[in-house]
Amino acid sequence: xxxxxxxxxxxxxxxxxxxxxxxxxxxxxxxxxxxxxxxxxxxxxxxxxxxxxxxxxxxxxxxxxxxxxxxxxxxxxxxxxxxxxxxxxxxxxxxxxxxxxxxxxxxxxxxxxxxxxxxxxxxxxxxxxxxxxxxxxxxxxxxxxxxxxxxxxxxxxxxxxxxxxxxxxxxxxxxxxxxxxxxxxxxxxxxxxxxxxxxxxxxxxxxxxxxxxxxxxxxxxxxxxxxxxxxxxxxxxxxxxxxxxxxxxxxxxxxxxxxxxxxxxxxxxxxxxxxxxxxxxxxxxxxxxxxxxxxxxxxxxxxxxxxxxxxxxxxxxxxxxxxxxxxxxxxxxxxxxxxxxxxxxxxxxxxxxxxxxxxxxxxxxxxxxxxxxxxxxxxxxxxxxxxxxxxxxxxxxxxxxxxxxxxxxxxxxxxxxxxxxxxxxxxxxxxxxxxxxxxxxxxxxxxxxxxxxxxxxxxxxxxxxxxxxxxxxxxxxxx
Amino acid sequence: xxxxxxxxxxxxxxxxxxxxxxxxxxxxxxxxxxxxxxxxxxxxxxxxxxxxxxxxxxxxxxxxxxxxxxxxxxxxxxxxxxxxxxxxxxxxxxxxxxxxxxxxxxxxxxxxxxxxxxxxxxxxxxxxxxxxxxxxxxxx
Lengths: 479, 140
Prior knowledge:
The complex is a heterodimer of chains A (479) and B (140). In chain A, a hairpin with a 2-residue loop joins strand 12 (332-339) and strand 13 (342-349). In chain A, the strands form four sheets. In chain A, strands 7, 8, 9, 11, 15, 16, 18 and 19 form an eight-stranded mixed sheet that branches. In chain A, strands 1-2-3-4-5-13-12 form a seven-stranded mixed sheet. Chain A has a single domain (4-92, 105-478), classed as Alpha-Beta Complex (tRNA-splicing ligase RtcB). Chain A is of the alpha+beta class. Chain A contains 15 helices and 19 strands. Chain A has helices at residues 30-41, 48-55, 114-119, 121-131, 146-155, 157-162, 190-196, 221-227, 243-263, 281-316, 390-395, 410-416, 419-428, 438-443, 452-462; strands at 4-8, 11-14, 24-27, 65-72, 79-86, 91-93, 104-113, 209-218, 233-240, 275-277, 325-330, 332-339, 342-349, 352-353, 372-375, 383-388, 399-400, 432-435, 465-478. With 140 residues, chain B is an alpha+beta fold. Chain B has one domain: Archease domain (Archease, Possible Chaperone, Chain: A, domain 1). In chain B, the strands form two sheets. In chain B, strands 1, 2, 6, 7 and 8 form a five-stranded antiparallel sheet that branches. In chain B, strands 3-5-4 form a three-stranded antiparallel sheet, covered by helices on one side. Chains A and B meet through helix 7, helix 9, helix 12 and helix 14 of A and strand 1 and helix 2 of B.
């Protein structure tokens, strides 16, 4: 049995053994650790701990293979995983980014008391469901030719704003100002672009959602004031990513990296960790393609936020621009960042960037507070807004959890929960759910996830992110 | 036959058949049955799919990802498949196949969850007692 020791409050370590180049560290409480151990003791084919141990063997990894408190098995890397690599010695892997580059969350403020919003929640649910394309196979309202796609891949959210989807000030409140540099559309295949031309401004399916949320508690007055959050007011939150373009980038580069693993003779414990040196043609090409995917996701969330603003403005009788952007941040990313004076490639796979106070990457209005980290809960429980901390910068490369984290398989969720029961139960709690797939609703049942309160509390107790506000859903649109 | 394997976040597929080609067909059915009710998808239009890879395992992932690409480009679900696999002189494999299906009609096809990609995770191929068996994890 692997030995895990709590080395500081909420931080557990698996010592460096065998081929591991660094230790593995997990932010967790005893309950989360027991779940990880049970995956091993029950000989489950999927073990998040084993995956984290494998990540620790990759060349050039710095300090530790880290997992957040929402850790659960992914492919290659666990979900909730963070790993930073030296730019000369390190590698880049599809498994460390995922097939949905820059999947993330964007949150806008609705400057109205919740009672005003709740009075119209049915109308809001109906209009958002009809205006925001969601679900498998749903096409977007924008149809882009390949020249326009290339422009979008370079300029991200700015492209969408220039097309009339949003307001100029949105840019200031996006990670990377909504367009990361180093995106070369030539490194993205024609297939990827062709798949995207009908998918810009679509939510997708699975765990993606659009929610109207109520701020149920403010947990840090000063930070909430800096973030412009008022108890009992409302928010719009959008969770989605780079859609088919991102999926195709992952698929295309999986092949490239598989060949690169052999070419550069990189020893990997599992095939799914196929990787290329960051400092190689293959690594550079993939990183450039990821940057395109990151921008596609920013553009996607920008278009969706515009559609949501228009819909909400109509029902709530306020101006679309009154719904200002709190923040937009990704949780499936590969980014070159400076940590303790060194430039590193930081992979976050289901982990949110949560930079601490003072970092120049944070919008000026939030710089003294730390970056907002937007944590999505489930359709029946809470979401959170956290803030990054100085300790997080030192310990977790400025990263926090991204959600509750799944606790059971989709099949198990369908066996345990009936979509009709979930809908009526949540309706009794005052939450309206609109979904395109009944199976999808059962798979995403709140009970299929870990307790988000527990997951977020671990982050706060460990000191790598602080709680600012707790949110509960009023309306949830699922794909 | 195909079977869905349980995974905390995603879904695995296991495909078994008496020939390698049929196992590939079963794998494709297993993947599309995550996205829709296969019995409701009419095999009206035929799309050609080709791919190649250095091993049977990676060919399986290539095949599934090639189908996802075609399904997306044509906004279709597929319900019937045919494949032919040939081994080349350099020991790599080539697949030439067809997929039949129709344009996505969300309510009629009882849509499920989108598959983002087939991955190398849990990827296995074996032939035992005349049964070809393939498995991999689908990213949801």
